[in-house]
Write a structure and sequence with these properties.
This protein is 0% helix and 18% strand. It is mostly beta strands. Strands 1-2 form a two-stranded antiparallel ribbon.
């Protein structure tokens, strides 16, 4: 869509630069229905501290 993820070396238009030295992609919450148990599972993680430098 023309909006690469910061730090993505493969799709980031050839730029090797990442201000936090990693791929800047994070999901605070992931939730889905487990395919075997059919129960809702939810995983939550705080935003990485190094991402705060970007905003």
């Amino acid at each position: 869509m023309g909006h690469p993820v910061v730090g993505d070396r493969k799709y980031g238009h050839g730029l090797d630069y990442s201000p936090v030295d990693r791929l800047c992609l994070h999901a605070k919450v992931l939730a889905f229905i487990h395919p075997a148990t059919e129960k809702k599972v939810r995983f939550e993680a705080p935003v990485p501290k190094e991402f705060n430098r970007l905003f």
